[in-house]
Specification:
Order of helices and strands of chain B: HHHHH
Shape of chain A: elongated
Largest sheet of chain A: none
Oligomer: heterodimer
Helix content of chain A: over 70%
Number of strands of chain A: 0
Number of helices of chain A: 4
Helix content of chain B: over 70%
Shape of chain B: elongated
């Protein structure tokens, strides 16, 4: 009997499934990771500028102190906290725990809410430290 | 003379390509660095928060102190390795054409080494005043 060439079976991808919270946060974990990847370039610039002297540091501060720089810094803070908390969730899952429906939902929601609260808290403290708008 | 049956498919023998056999090491490395980074990220945030509103001289003095410099160096080293594996995983997931995949993987390695070297050089310059 002649064999008809069939395409190999593929597992369905994202568009097949209903969007769930765990799926959305999994995607966000990857996006924040990629964002932090490029954000490390800013960390490198910061350390090079600090090592380069007062003039280089003043240039860095003028860029990072602008509204766009602050936006990048705010995004970096949230991405760092969300990716860190998401990492904890993944470590718990790696140990085979937290997979019950209620557990995985609350764990995932906790990382989302926790990251937002911690980001606002950190920026609130920072705002108080520098004594309001400059 | 071996009488063991040949389980390998023709395609496997012809191409001679299998898994690179480094995946488990990367999986473990990603988790080891993630545990380390949990502590080092907290240190990083505390250090940066402590530098808010300080002038250049104070920033250099604080970063250059042994404990802070060591913690930041460890943060950078663990982060670079973690993000190198992470981006490699993203590239392998989405880029399937050989040429662009190898180019992306090479670019990932170069970017990580460059950023890591810049961070370490900056830290050394702050610490030792090169």
């Amino acid at each position: 009997m002649a064999q008809v060439a069939k395409p190999r079976p593929l597992s369905p991808h994202l568009q097949i499934y209903r969007l769930t919270l765990t799926m959305a946060m999994s995607i966000v974990h990857r996006i924040t990771g990629a964002g932090l990847y490029f954000g490390m370039g800013v960390v490198a610039w910061w350390l090079l500028a600090a090592g380069g002297g007062p003039n280089a540091y003043a240039i860095f501060e003028s860029y990072i102190g602008s509204w766009f720089g602050c936006l990048v810094l705010f995004g970096f803070t949230w991405a760092l906290l969300h990716h860190s908390l998401g990492g904890v969730r993944h470590l718990i899952w790696d140990m085979g725990r937290g997979f019950e429906p209620a557990e995985r939902e609350s764990l995932t929601l906790a990382t989302l809410i926790g990251s937002i609260v911690l980001t606002l808290l950190l920026w609130g403290i920072g705002y108080l430290v520098i004594g309001g708008p400059r | 003379m071996s009488t063991a049956p040949k389980y390998r498919t023709a395609a496997r023998r012809v191409r001679g390509l299998g898994a690179a056999r480094t995946g488990t090491g990367h999986f473990i490395g990603q988790r080891v660095t993630s545990v380390a980074l949990l502590f080092l990220t907290i240190a990083f945030i505390v250090i940066v928060a402590g530098l808010i509103g300080r002038n250049h001289a104070a920033v250099v003095q604080i970063i250059g102190s042994p404990l802070v410099a060591i913690l930041l160096t460890l943060f950078v080293v663990a982060t670079i390795y973690h993000m190198w594996i992470g981006m490699q995983e993203i590239i392998i997931d989405y880029v399937h054409e050989d040429g662009s995949k190898f180019a992306a993987l090479l670019g990932n390695s170069f970017f990580c080494v460059l950023v890591g070297a810049a961070c370490i050089f900056g830290l050394m310059r702050i610490s030792f005043g090169l």
